[in-house]
Amino acid sequence: MWKTVAMAACAAMLSLNSMVFAAATDSKPPEPTQVAAMLQHTQGAVFPVGTYNARNTAHFTGDSYVAPLTDGRVPVVNVTFVHGAHTYWHMHHHTSQTLLAVSGKGYYQIEGQAPQVLLPGHSVTIPAGVRHWHGAAPGYMFQHIAVMEPVQGAWTEWFEPVDNQLFCSLS
């Protein structure tokens, strides 16, 4: 019974978020300072929130922010996911991706495997050529550092959104 109620609540939340997003397409996303304030329940942002991730709005649900942490050969980026935002299914060709959870609560899932929780201090390396998704847990803020070795010819292929019923079943 509680799972049915929880799934209905999650579906309603996603529906409401979609309506708010659709109604607010002309409005700007929250300012980075507002996002940092939202992270207070996670003991704040350890790394800068950065700037709105406008480049990936077609491949992410909800709002996300990116903050480059290096300017060297290997890009290291802090990604902030706002209230349940997460990526679509995707694959990095010719390079792996390492995720280091730094605040909040998130998940990642490799295709064919069960979703795995990401909490501060957790890390995972997604091998090259493996379909996966990652981001905040439903209703949570989440930050992770993403590290990908720059390899000539590497690129990201984007697929469909994560199934809403699956996502809503995560706690």
Number of beta strands = 13
CATH superfamily: Jelly Rolls
Poorly predicted residue ranges: 1-9, 11-25
CATH class: Mainly Beta
Which radius of gyration do the C-alpha atoms yield?
Answer: 16 Å
Number of domains: 1
Biggest sheet features:
6 strands, antiparallel
Helix content: 10-25%
Helix- and strand-based class?
alpha+beta
Strand order within the widest beta sheet: 1-3-4-12-7-10
Written account of the structure:
- This protein is of the alpha+beta class and 171 residues long.
- It has a single domain, classed as Jelly Rolls.
- It has three helices and 13 strands.
- The strands form four sheets. Strands 1-3-4-12-7-10 form a six-stranded antiparallel β-sheet, with no helix packed on it. The protein has a three-stranded antiparallel β-sheet with strand order 9-8-11, with no helix packed on it.
- The longest helix has 22 residues, at 2-23.
- The radius of gyration is 16 Å and the shape is globular.
- The model is unreliable at 1-9 and 11-25 (pLDDT under 50).
